[in-house]
Amino acid sequence: MPTLPLSYWSALVVAGALTLYFGGRQIGGARSIERLRDITPTGAFGYSLLLVTLYQGIALYFGPGMNPGATFFRWAVHGVVGFGIVGFLFQQLGRHVGTRASKKLFRSMPVTAALGILLILIYAIVAIFADFIAPYGQAEIFKDANVLPGGNPEMGGNPAHFLGTDQIGRDILSRLIYGAQNTVGIAFVTTLLAFFIGISLGFLAATIGGVLDQVLSRIVDMLMSIPQLIFALLLMTIATAWFGSQKSMVTLFMIVIIAVLDSTRVFRLARAVGMNIVVMDFFEAAKLRGEKLSYLIFSEITPNAFAPLLAEFGLRFCFVFLTIASLSFLGIGIQPPLADWGTMVRDLSQFINFAVISPLTASLPLMAAGAIALLTVAVNFVVDWMLHRASGLKE
Amino acid sequence: MNNVITIIGKRLGLGLLTMFMVSVIIFLAVNMLPGDFAQALLGQSATPEAVAAIRKDLGLDKPIHIRYFDWLLGAVQWDFGTSFAKANFSSYAGTTADANFGTVADQLAPRFANTLFLAGVTAAIAVPLSLLIGVLAALYRYSIFDRIANVSTLTSISSPEFFVAYILILLLAVLSPVFPSLSNIHDGMDFGQKLEKTMLPALTLTLVVTAHMMRMTRAAIINLLASPYIEMARLKGLSPFRIIVVHALPNALAPIINVIALNLAYLITGVVVVEVVFVYPGVGQLFVDSVKIRDIPVVQACCLVFAAAYISLNLIADVMSILSNPRLRLPK
Fold it and tell me: Cβ neighbours of residue B252 under 8 Å, at least 6 residues apart?
């Protein structure tokens, strides 16, 4: 099965569309198959495009071997199909194993959400047990730098370093694994901090109201009128001027900066949710009982605001995670010697030019970037499902 | 009509106020820095006289509110002061006679034009594309096409910009060399060459922005399809395509214009990362470089330019939605 050049490909799509449209009318009309008879020109074009592209994909997948484009395509297909199968298996497992409640939960869950939960679990396990999983330390430097991945000595590899080593001789596989701990861990801590700040101020503004509410809301408006990444970059300049030599302090400062900037969004939501709760009777009753402010906030508002805030936590985590990765990618985020995915993408980015010679080498920067993308996609899948469930929508 | 002018006037005033507050925030943030630049520039061993001379020349000896208004007055006239990295302080050491300052505006102006070019190319591709896909997805909602569009846009929204950028480099620059992966455009190039070099960064931004715009276009049109007059048009026996293009689209235009303006504002954040990936000489790259070498006046200026673009695009979105929606035109 040969793949088609672009000109044949487009000609075939048009021919297919015409055949489908006119042939469909004839055959569908004669045998009264309504779907085929009533096909629109655009629809016929779409199906034709889909079919020809599908053929092209299959031809590329089973085509002759060593073409680098085909190699990447096969990896992509393996990835998508593999994740689909794993997600399905996990969903089936959840449906048959576990408590009644968890079985019920898994039964209402689409495959994407099951896959999302599984991926988040895997990321969490890798992040927590990075010290035991990684073969070497994250800052450990070996004698032979620039070892190519693949572990084959004839190809410039080394069996001891499956994914090779970077420019100064650090094991890339270990750094990828530690990246989970640092990048995900730092993003998680930042999101927690942002939620702590945003929720406590938001609920406070909703409960007390008046001047405090006005002042806090206007400050948040001001902070939100500067694009977040731009503001973060400005503040990071100041952070590096303060603690230029102390790398760990710069990282710490970044956590605080991102948390404060992101807490503005949390504040808005928490305040809006809180406003709806403080006008309810049970809250009024608690207030009249003379309960303390801390009791009002933690025992009356928080439990009732939990569900919307949990979904928001997933979304905010994605956003914080991407912001931190972008900052690190620009060289102003998480500081070395901590291994993190954003910095790794930048350091390894030159390898992408070797795609024709060695596809595995070229995919090193994509692995780090893909690790970031995969986690955000996973969280989005789960949040999508949670929102869908909470809104009670049925398709 | 007077009503509309008053409301828009109020919004513009509010926008100006926001801009003013933002400039205060940016200025104060930078002034939180310890020590001062004169000291930082000359190092520990500088004589007090040299430090004082530079401080006087940069105006650092004046009180903070005077410095702020000096800076603001300059900024509105596109004069952001002297870049520390490009400043020539050798005159203070007595070796050369001419104090040849490199101004921030000199650095910023050509890069600003480049960034506008990139944003323009992106908008020219992304806006028609996302409208087309959005309308098609609304027309064939819940079909295979809609599902494919949905999953792929969700994926491109949730991946970082640099992931999309490197995938595009891999596919379009390395595996099949269609476009160059380095976008080092300069003044000597003609339009065609510039366009070719700008293509990959523009495509990256297009992928990210189209996802948002397409989803919102689809949502806006589907939202309208539930209204009674569309039901009426359908009962008259009009074709689905005609219903969407002639009946739904004009009424969905208001939210769609809004979405386009907001997404162009969203471009501002994306542009920083994308310019760095492709070594595109725009404001974003200048910004990141200046952050690394702590060239404060340039950082301040870039920040102000980005914030101004962000605020004015949001303002345009706001005014557009007032103008196109009769319900908002009347005061509450």
Answer: B217, B220, B221, B223, B224
Residues contacting B109, CB < 8 A, separation 6+: B78
> What dihedral angle (degrees, nearest 10) is formed by the CA atoms of B210, B216, B219, B221?
-80
Rounded to the nearest angstrom, the gap between the alpha carbon of residue B82 and the centroid of all alpha carbons in its chain is 24
Task: Enumerate residues 6+ apart whose C-beta is below 8 A from B74.
Answer: B80, B81
Given a contact cutoff of 8 angstroms between Cβ atoms, the answer to whether A351 and A264 are in contact is: no
For A244-256, the pLDDT digits (tens) are 667 788 888 889 9
Q: Which of A 296-355 lie inside 8 A of B, CB atoms? A: 318, 322, 325-326, 329-332, 342, 345, 349, 352-353, 355
A362 Cβ contact list (under 8 Å, min separation 6): A351, A352, A353, A354, A355, B170, B174
Predicted-complex ipTM score: 0.83
A57-66, B170-179, B302-311, range with the lowest pLDDT? A57-66
The C-alpha atoms of residue B261 and residue B309 are separated, in whole angstroms, by 11
Of A226, A237, A353, the CB nearest to B291: A237
List, for residues A86-135, the tens digit of each pLDDT value: 888 988 888 888 788 888 888 888 888 889 999 999 999 999 988 888 88
State residue B226's pLDDT score: 81
User: Between residues 111 and 170 of chain A, which touch chain B (CB distance below 8 Å)?
Assistant: none
Q: State the amino acid at position B161 in one-letter form.
A: E
| DSSP conformation class of A301 | I
* DSSP-assigned beta bridge partners for residue B82: B103
For B259-284, the pLDDT digits (tens) are 788 787 777 777 888 998 888 888 88
Q: Do B310 and A355 touch (CB under 8 A)?
A: no
